[in-house]
Design goal:
By secondary structure, this protein is mainly alpha-helical. It is 76% helix and 0% strand. The chain contains 17 helices and no strands. Helix 2 packs across helix 9 and helix 12 packs parallel to helix 16. It starts with 26 loop residues before the first helix and ends in a 7-residue tail after the last helix.
Length: 451
């Protein structure tokens, strides 16, 4: 399978919205990528940005629901204490958002009009929220707020986000950083809004309002979705030659471990804040602060990546995330220091956004733009698998830790095993991304400090 690397034209202006010209020196590239306009680029940026806002934003805000479901009377008393199963509601939705690439990508390859996939996806998301508003048991939430929402969010997410890197070359890192910053912004807005709505209206009307809001935003961007630049049908299965590469194996493993580790703080931030002595409302504020910082970080990360190398910045962000968990969060749990916890919330928001902003760009650089769709789809699938088990396993660890402790001193100290688990996941991901960097240079037989 041919791999084509797009090179910036000498006539291209340093404007991220500038018209992208296919290099005339590459006949193959010219024949497989259609030309685009500035209007196309703006449309892709806007629709991709809003699709990330609508799909990833609620996923990053589920911790507010997690805290509400475990402290309210919405669920039977026998189910309220099952933190692992309640966490699975959120991670099932988040996991399917990414893991759904395994069925959405083949649909995209067979359907040139992405709206035919994205519009039903937006409708399924709203149906999931609406039906969740009538749920009274965990299994009902799993089917609605988890499964139905997750399937729909994947169908809205991939048709819009997957084509975005193809519309940019010279400023691809900056463009994707801007698009993916919508995840943090969505998390910020949804965390605050959900907490206010839960306090004033309860879970049922909160979910119904979210259903209506998704229709108002999700449907228009689904209708406006643009197709990919390729005029040929690209493979949806990863080429066996690529799949055997150590860089590919490590890239997939890094994605799974990072997704697993990344959702643990997001899920348990409100709950840990309460254990430290903060109110539930302030716990939601801290989660929104984390997401807000994360949004800004993704934009800046994209700019830094274009300047200092995308793989370099990605590695620093993952390693820094792991260190912040094992130093600041663990310190807050061991000593009960609120200052360390607030510092972690802010610093983790700065560092964790780097991976999400850069790994799609890294895929196109390491494996080639022609293999992007198949490799990206598979990596997102394993990332979805990782997101699905990270927090539920963490909830089970937390429940076991609390059960083995006495009532006295059980507060934040019971989170230590959970934090070690999270740190191990992120450290494992760190080793994998370093390995990708090394094997990529080895295969290309050239080491570049800026890569």
């Amino acid at each position: 399978m041919a791999q084509i690397q797009l090179q910036p034209s000498l006539s291209t202006q340093p404007d991220p919205f500038a018209r992208e010209e296919t290099p005339t020196s590459s006949p193959d590239a010219a024949s497989t990528l259609r030309s685009i306009t500035k209007k196309d680029q703006i449309t892709v940026l806007l629709t991709a940005f809003l699709s990330v806002f609508q799909t990833i934003g609620p996923n990053l805000s589920y911790g507010v629901f997690q805290n509400y479901y475990t402290t309210s009377t919405l669920l039977p008393a026998s189910e309220v204490s099952n933190k692992a199963l309640i966490a699975l509601v959120g991670t099932l939705g988040a996991g399917l958002t990414w893991g759904g690439s395994i069925y959405v990508n083949p649909l995209m390859a067979r359907c040139r009009n992405p709206s035919r996939i994205a519009v039903p996806g937006a409708l399924l998301m709203s149906a999931g929220f609406l039906l969740a508003g009538w749920s009274t048991r965990i299994w009902q939430l799993l089917l609605t707020q988890g499964l139905l929402y997750g399937v729909g969010s994947s169908m809205l997410y991939f048709p819009l986000i997957s084509v975005a890197p193809e519309y940019f070359d010279r400023r691809r890192g900056s463009a994707m950083g801007l698009v993916l910053s919508a995840a943090g912004l969505g998390g910020l807005v949804y965390s605050l809004a959900i907490r206010v709505l839960l306090d004033r209206l309860g879970a049922r009307w909160t979910l119904r309002i979210m259903s209506l809001e998704n229709l108002m935003v999700g449907l228009p961007i689904a209708v406006a979705a643009l197709p990919g630049r390729s005029v040929e049908r690209r493979p949806t299965l990863v080429n066996w030659r690529i799949a055997k590469k150590p860089a590919f194996i490590l890239q997939a493993l890094a994605a799974m471990l990072q997704a697993s580790g990344n959702f643990v703080p997001m899920t348990f931030t409100p709950e840990f804040s309460i254990a430290l002595g903060y109110t539930a409302a302030f716990g939601a504020v801290l989660l929104s602060i984390n997401n807000g910082v994360n949004a800004v970080s993704r934009i800046l990360t994209g700019v830094l990546a274009d300047a200092f190398g995308r793989q370099n910045v990605l590695i620093l962000s993952v390693v820094g995330s792991a260190i912040s968990v094992l130093v600041l969060w663990l310190g807050a749990a061991m000593e009960g220091v609120k200052g360390l916890w607030v510092a972690f919330v802010v610093l983790y928001g700065v560092l964790a956004g780097g991976y999400m902003a850069l790994f799609p760009v890294m895929i196109s650089e390491v494996f080639g733009i022609q293999a992007y769709a198949s490799v990206n789809g598979f990596v997102y699938f394993v990332r979805g698998c990782g997101a699905a088990f990270g927090s539920p396993v963490g909830g089970a660890i937390l429940g076991e830790s609390r059960g083995s402790e006495t009532a006295i001193g059980s507060g934040v100290s019971s989170y230590q095993k959970l934090i070690w688990y999270d740190g191990a996941l992120l450290m494992g991901s760190s080793l994998c991304v370093v390995g990708v960097r090394g094997f990529d240079a080895l295969e290309k037989r050239k080491w570049k400090w800026k890569a």
